[in-house]
Structure formats: C-alpha cells, structure tokens
Amino acid sequence: MMIIGKDALSRTDSKAILATVRQIASNYNFVNAESGWNGFNVLHRSQGEINALELGLDLTPISGPPKVIFLFGCDNDIAPSDIPKDAFVVYIVYF
Q1: Helices then strands, each counted (H, E), the chain
Q2: Model pTM?
C-alpha cells in the first residue's frame, strides 16, 4: 500500500511527484482492477480537496484571485471573507 500526503500534491513540482508515485504504484501492482484492490491512497486534510481531485482539478496554488469557486458543503478552511466579491460561486449540497 502507498499513501501520499496532500502537501506533496500542492508543491510546484506536484505533477512530477504524482507521475513518479503512479509509476511506483504501477510497478508494484498497488492498483489491481482484476481483484478490485486499490492500494494507492492520498491522505487529505479536507473533503473539498478530495472533491477537487475527483473532478480532475490541479491543487497547485493559483497566482491571483479565483474567478469561479466550487464549494461542496464541507470546505473547512473557507470563510465568506475569503471569496472575492466578483467571483462566481457554485455551491453543491449533498442530501
């Protein structure tokens, strides 16, 4: 089993780190679709980051204020004051 921390995916070289980790997981069969085994895991600090990864979003920090923000109903570290006044906000709620 392989577990990679979220901070490794937030660095500027995160794509290279993820590619290396995926290669290691592939070489050692950490993911086996035939048996249903997935031993490649990412340890996160917030559910919002997990949702972003599931959407295929890059977690590398941006250089300016966001123009669109997706909130998933469990965003731990976002206060209303963190959202720019001109940002388009999509709030997704699970029932």
Answers
A1: 2, 6
A2: 0.48
